[in-house]
Amino acid sequence: MAGHSKWANIQHRKGRQDAKRGKLWTKIIREITVAARAGGPDPDANPRLRMAWDKATAANMPKDNIQRAIQRGAGGADGANYEEIRYEGYGVGGAAVVVDCMTDNRTRTVAEVRHAFTKHGGNLGQEGSVAFMFKHCGQFVFAPGTSEEQVLEVALEAGAEDVQTDEEGVIEVTSAPTDYAAVKTAFEAAGLIPEVQALTMKPQNETELSLDDAATMQKMLEVLESLDDVQEVYTTAVFDEADEPN
Prior knowledge:
alpha+beta, 246 residues, single chain
């Protein structure tokens, strides 16, 4: 068994995100609306809105669309009445899964999420059943070949908590959620562009899956991420490099 590759797993996750690209604008607009409602319409004074704005820009969303979503959220108009819900459970092989949703219909959402779990050999758990297995943090992942010395210098000066490099040369930087924006800005100023940058739920430990379990888990994640009400999916699952599903 080859063991799992962090870089290969990152690429598979990016592949899943690309597959749902058609729904990305809808999810980002919902995120902008909720952020503006919760923290106000000024992205400079609302870190959550700033992050959603950055996502929209990265997805090539027109500025007019962004402004309309902010106005809906800040004004409390139609489309702003979303509820944030987190679902937790287990997939095959005991891999933990956290599903963050924004919905205007809790009954519909829980039914869709439960169906995705049960259809692929998982089960939906109670609140708090797996969230303790994850750490809420800022995460930045740099491709092999990036200057470890430069990343380390910029990260620590900007207030990052930890910098780790694995045997493949993948560099991972983590920060406290409150320091995420400062670290992101510092990397941008230094011309360092991570493959992954996000506020995330990082697993404290990983559950390595292979063969059929890997394929089943991958399918479950794809189904969950394709649901309209699902914003983010986090899991402890990683896949063997030799056995990752195509």
